[in-house]
Each structure stands twice: as structure tokens, then as C-alpha cells.
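Following up on my earlier message about fe (ii) ion. Here are the inputs again, as you asked, copied directly from the submission form:
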Amino acid sequence: MFEMKPEYMTGITMIDEEHQKLFELADQLYDLLNNDFIHDKFDYIVEVINGLKEYAKKHFKDEEEYMMSINYKRLFSHKIEHQAFLEKMEGLDLESIDEDQKQTCLELLGFVSDWLVNHILGNDILIGK
Ligand SMILES: [Fe+2]
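Thanks, got it. Here's what our run produced:
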């Protein structure tokens, strides 16, 4: 469902591999929502969301270090976008997720995938240029 596409490639291997992993984590959450064999998914959902949050943090740090290493000019505005994503993830109310697991997680996935695609195409791609 969520996957890397050729147009998302920045040409910087580390960044592309980490983006790949972020798509995989989003996909894991999607698969989990559609798994009808698990009765109460809450614990699993929390685990995947935390994993996604942690990996996003690591990825942003790596990407920002890379931008610094090449004296990238748009580092500051780029960092602000990363920060906004993390704030949204930190602000998630896990209890409201428990009330309607599928709906809230689908909304979250919509946010994550839109953000990733827009951010990669609008910002990350420029790092490789
Ligand atoms: Fe980025």
C-alpha cells in the first residue's frame, strides 16, 4: 500500500533507504489494521506508532547531519518541517485511538503518507540536486 516510488529517490543512498523504511513502517500499520485475526490491536498499534515516531526522529537527525555536512542552504526551513511532523506525532492521543482504532489509524496513515510524499518531493529531492 505505502511504498517508495522511483520519483521519490533523492539519489542519496542513506536518505533513500531510510525513506524506504518509513514507508515500510506505515505499511505495517496498514496491514495490522486489516488483519482480522487479531481481536484487540491496541498494543500492537501503539508499538508500530512508537516505532514510526522513533524511526522518524532518527531519520530526521541523519538527514539534518547530512545537510550540514554539505552546507545545504535550506537547512533551517527544512528542519522546521521535520519539527512540525514530530510535534504532530508527539501530540497524538493514544486513548482516542483506542476508541475507534481503525478510523483514527487510517486518518493517521493518511497524514503520514501525505506528509512523507509532499516532504520528499518538495524538500528532500532538492538535497540531492
Ligand atoms: Fe527531510
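One observation from looking it over: The two ends are 28 Å apart (CA to CA). Hope that helps, and feel free to reply on this thread.
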